[in-house]
Task: structure prediction
Amino acid sequence: MELFKISQTLFNIGGIAFVIATILYVIYLGPRSRVVGNGATGATVIGVLCLTVGMALRWIDAGLSHPPFTNLYETLLFFSWGIALVYAVIEFKYKLKIAGAFVLPISLAAMGIASLSPNKEIEPLVPALQSAWLHFHVAVSSVAYAAFVVAFAFSILYLLKDRVPMEVFGICVAVVGWFSMSVTKLSVLTDGVFRMRQMVLEHGKLYPVFHPGTKTPVEIEIPDVGTVFLIIFGLYVLTMVLYALYVYMKQENLARLSLWAMIASFVAQSAALLLLLQRIKSIPQVSMQSNPYEITMMFISWGTTLVFLIVQFNYSKFLEALPQKKLLDNLSYKTIMVAFPLMTLVIVTGAIWANYAWGTYWSWDPKETWSLISWLVYALYLHARITIGWHGRRTAYISIIGFAVVLFTFLGVNIVLSGLHSYASG
Amino acid sequence: MKKEQTISPEAPGKPSEKSAGFFASLYDALNSIRLTVFLFIILGVVSIVGTIIEQGATPEKYAQSYSEGTIRLFNALGLFDMYHTPWFFGLLLLLMLNLIVCTIERLPRVWRFAKGIKPVLDEGDEKKHPFMETLQVDGATEKVEQAFRKSARFSIWIMLLDVTAVALAVFFTMIYDLNFLEFVSFIIIPLGYVALLNFPGKLIRTEREDTVHFFLNQWLVSRFGVYITHVSILTIFAGAIVGNLFGFKGYIAIPEGRTDNQMFVRQNKMIDTVSASMRGLFSGKKDAPADPHANRDSEYKTLPFAIRCDDFSISYYPNTGRPKDYTSDLVVLRDGQEETRKTIEVNDPLVVDDIYFYQSNYGQTGRPGLVVFEVTAPNGDTREYRTPPNGKFRIEGTATDVEVVSFVPDFTIVRGRVTSRSNELINPAVYLRATDGGKSLFTGWLLPKFPEHSVETGPYKFAFKDYWGWQYTGLQVAYDPGVEVVWIGCSLLVVGLMISFFHSHQRLWARVKGDHVVLSGSTHKNRMAFEKKFNDLVQLLKE
Result:
C-alpha cells in the first residue's frame, strides 16, 4: 500500500513536470532562450524519471506477473511515458528542442486523461490478460505508437515550415475538433441534451447501470452542457466555412473572422469542460468514468485548438525558429523507420497471444483490422518514400493520415466499434 | 535523396522494352510499385468497410440495421463476411504476386551489386561516392587501420544485449514447451539477428605495390532486409493458406462429468467460430454465449478420441467478483482408455494429436448438479458425499441423515428473501437439515465463504466442495498445420524489417600511399548518421 501511495505521488510530480515542460517548450517557440530550453528539457527528464520509478514501484506492488499497463489508466500513463521518452531521446540525439512544443502536449494530454480516471487502483488481471506475450505486446506498442506521435509532430512542423497556409491548418483543426466531438456525442446535435451513463459502486469499482433486462445503459441528463456543446458544434462549423471561404475568396476580413470563431470555440470548449467537471462533481450518479472517451475526445479537441491558436499568434517567429525543412522531413522518415518494425512486432506478438489464448492468430476483429490498416498506411509511406522517391509534403500527409489511423486504432475502435479488445474500455 | 536514387540498385524496374503480348504487359503491371500503392490503399479502404459493417452476425441482426435491398446488395458483394470472399482473397493474392514479381525483378540486381563491390579504392573511385576526404597523416597506415578497426569494433552495449538475449532465450525455452518450428521462430531467428549485430561486417586490407587499401563493408545485409521481409510475408500467407485448407476451427461444449467427441465445425473453414462465443467471456459479461448451432454453414465432426470434463471451475480474486481463472479438468479417452489428463486454463490449452483445445467459455446446462461435501466426523474420519438439491445422505457409520433442502450459487438476501444474485459460484450456500435418529440436529444455511454466519453443524465439520455437473465448459478446438509456418514468417518479418530499417549498408574506403590518405564512403540510407560517422573518422585521423 505504501508503494502504491509513493507511486501515485511520483505520477503527480511527473504530471506537474510535464505541465512545466509543455509551458517552457511553448515559450521556447518565441524567444529561443537557452535557460528556457534547458528548463524544458530538464522538466521532461524529471517527468520521465518520475514516471519510470512510479511505474516500477506500481509493478513491484502488483507482483511480477502484473506489469503496470493492463487497464486504460495504466496504459495511458505508459503511453505518456513512452512519448516523452522517445521525444527526449530524439532531442538528445539531434539537439532539437523546437518539436517539444508539439510532442509534450500529447504526452501531457495522455497523462491528464489518465489522471481523470477514478479507478487508479491496481486491478486484478482477468484470465485472458495473464500472458507474457500480451505484456510484451503492450510494452512495445507504447514505444512504437510514441514514435508515430513524434513522426506526426515532425510532419506537421514540416508542413508549417513548407508554408502550408495556416487556413488549411485551421480547417483541419476544426474538422478534427468537430469529428472528435461528434464521434462521441452526435446525439447532442439531434436533441440538444448531453447525457452521461449512470454508475454504481460495487466491490470498490464503478460499473455502469443498465435498464433491467437490456443492454441499454441508464443515462442521466447533464443540465446546460448540451447547450454549450451545440454552440461549440456551431462555432466549429462556422470556422470551417469561414476558412474555406477565405481560401476561396482571399479576403482578409474573412481570415480575421474565422480566427475569432476559432477563439470563441476555444472559449466555449474551456467553458464546457469546466462546466462538465463541475457537474460531474455535483451529480453523484455520474463520474468521469461514465463516459471516459467523450471526455478524452473533448480534451483532444481542446488541446488541438489551443496549439493552433498559439502557433497562429506566433506565426512568423515560430517559422523562423523551425529547423530546416529537409531535417524535419528526414526526422519524420527516420522515426517512422524505427517505429514500423516495432509496430510489426506489436501486431505479431498480439497474434501470438491471440493464438495461445483462443486458437486463432487472426480473427479480423476491428482492433486487429485497424492495426493492419495503420500498418498498411506506414508500409505505403515507406514504399512511396524509398521506392518511388516521394518526399516532402506528400509523405508528410501520409504520416499524418497514419497518425490519425493509429489514434483511431488505440481509442476510436473502442468507442465506435466493438470487438475482442473490449476489456480495454474501462 | 534524388542522387542516391539514381545509384540505388533498388530503383524501380523499367518496363521491358517491347512489352508486346499479354503476358509481358501483365508482368510489367505486376512489377509496378504503383500497383503496390494501389493495393495498399484498396486493402486499407475495404478493411475499413469490414469493420463498419459487422461481420458474421445473425440475419436477424442485419434485418434490424439494414433495409432488405441493402442486405441483398451487401450479401451479393459478400460484405457480411468480407474477409473471406473470393475478391478479398484475390486482392491479397494480387499483392503476393506483385511482391513476388518485384522481388524476382530486383533481388538479382542487388545481388550483382553486392558481388560487384570492390574492396579497393582505385584512383578516381572516390569521386563515385558521396563522401570524400583527402588528408595528410603521419604514420598513415597504422592510424587508418586503427581508426577503421575502432569503427568496426563492437561496443559494450552489444555485449550486454548478447547476454540479455541469451538469458531470455534460455529462460523462454525452459518455461515454455516449444516444438521445433516454434523454437526456430521464437529463439533461433531472433538470436540470429543478435548475432548479426555482433558481426555487421569485416575490415579488408589489400596491399598493392606502394598503396594500402582498407575497406569496411558494414551491414551489406541491410540491402537484403527488404527481400527477407517480402519472403516472410509470402511465408505468412502460405502458412495461412495451409491452415485454411487443411486445418479446422471448432467448438465443443462438455458438461461436467460428461464425455463428448462430437465437435461443431463451421463449413467455411476460413471463418472461426471464436469471436461470437468468446466475447462473453473476455468482456466479463455473464450471459450465456450465442448458440453456435444457430449458424447455418455448420456441421458436426467426430474427433478420433473423446474428451471428458471432470470439472469446470472459476476462481475469484479475494473480496471481488473479478474472475481470476477459468479452469477445466479434461481427460482424453481413446477407445475407452484414459490417455492423458490436463487442467487447462485460458492461455494454456490442451494438445492432442496437434489439435488444440482452448478454454473458451462456459455456461449452465439447465440441469441440476450435485452438491459435493466433505464431512469430517468427530473421530476425524473424512468422507465425500454428493447429493442433488432436495436429496439426502446418511453420514456413514452414524445415524445422522442430512437433507439438502435448497442450494443457491450466489447467496444474497433481497427484501428478506434468499435469492441468488448470479449464476456463478461466487457465494454458494446450502440449506441443510440434519436429523439424528429422527430428532433434529441442526437446520440452517451453510455459507462456506462466511463461516461466521454459517449454521453450527453439531459435531460434524462440513466443507462445501463444489456444485458439480450443472455447468458445461466451452472449448475452442483448433487444428492448424500452418501455424508454425506463420510463426516463422512473423519472426522473419520483424527481423527483416529491423535489418532494413535499423541499419544501413555503409561502406568506408581508405587508400593510403605514404602519408597521403584518401577516404571515401557511401551509405544507402540514413545519410545524417553516416555523415557524422565519416566526419568523426576524419577528425580522429587529423589529430
